[in-house]
Amino acid sequence: MTMSTVRFLFNNDVVTLENIDPNLTVLQYLREKQFSTGTKEGCCSGDCGACTVVVAELENNQQDLNYKSINSCISFVGSLHGKQLITVEDLKDGAKLHHVQQSIVDNHGSQCGFCTPGFVMSSFALHKTNNKPSRADVIEALAGNLCRCTGYRSIIDAAMESSEHKQVDSFATNYKQTVQQLNNFKQLPSAKLSDNQHRYFAPKNVTELAQKLIEDPKATLVAGGTDLALSVTQHFNIIEDLVYLGDVSELLTLENNDDQFVIGSAVPYSEFTPMLHDEYHELGEMIERIGSRQVRNNGTLGGNVGNASPIGDMPPALIALGAEMTLQRGDTERKIAVEDYFVAYKKTVLKDSEFIKDFYIPKAKPGQFLKLYKISKRIDDDISAVLAAFFIELKDNIITDLRIAFGGMAGIPMRAKHCEAALLNKPFNQDNITAAQQALTVDFQPMSDVRASDKYRMKVTQNLMQKCYLELQNRTIETRVVNYA
To answer: pTM of the predicted model, to two decimals?
Structure first.
């Protein structure tokens, strides 16, 4: 056994992996290697939540644990290094069910039972951080779990049952030992996996990462894997050389400075969203619609931008805010505007051996507003047909600065330059909004696909401009869905 293998806690047992295919998902590992079949396979795309497990990892202070629900079907097994993996089989104490399991029983929250383990694990993760969750807390935590045969009321009722005075579970009893073991894992060298044909490497700093990419410029980078893993689980691709970014310390930067936020490219959404939500409420609300909590616990800003999808939700918002990003190759860095990263469909300015290091997001100044609108068939956990982002600065009702960006309207997320020109340095009134709506037909010639027709996309984009105007004219009216579960 080498020192650079993958090691983690499976419940409370130390597991060492070597000579295993790094394309293996956590779900496959559980069911096919450990024969822990309580975790179910539903969609293999991170949509249904039947495969939900919980990982515990050290907080930045190295003394506290963060319990996170994740989709095991789209998480590669190498990402478990240095963490604790908890499955539904691990919850009960002897013959006694864990209180989140017992609550499901008491509230008749299961029929066929196929989805139940996933709901249990999402509820378990919630109660580890919130022992008296509100209905809103529960709905947000369970939004990534689907049930195909029963109503959700009994499941929600079960998850809402307070765990404040429940019996301490085995994870609380073993808390200190778990923290110590995970700290011991921290001292290990960078993890590696190989089955002789496929390789996995998890560098611990940018020096190791940069060197690896210089040596292997075609290596595939993965952080959360919430999109990349689908190429394996849905399209049956094989990744020969996988480089995991979740252990690179410099990519986990999170700073809240006087005039800007700095977010490392490998920081999960769930960790940076509260910070952004306090500054830009609508940005925080929009991020909560990016996948489920399981997806946001793994997904990263670097992945969403780096993927260069024309329907990624974060790029239009970042472009509208005038955000910048740092790219690094070897020991050379360069900073560019996020809008300059995209060249054509799925093509970017990223050079061979170069990677995204971090993002710089300016804070709002007086008179500046960010309005965001996501159009999708479902409120939660769905892909956008159109994502509209409006950044507007008003002084005495004159538009003194603005950036308007859209996703889903072209082969890349991009600004509406003609629309902006119709508004800049002009009064913020209906006549100019109408002119800007017409200018959108010059900026974009959208396509038709399974999510929306070209005519629908153009019409809804023009309507969103009108909605933005109405909301800024009267900031007390409610124009959006606020209660939906």
So the answer is: 0.94
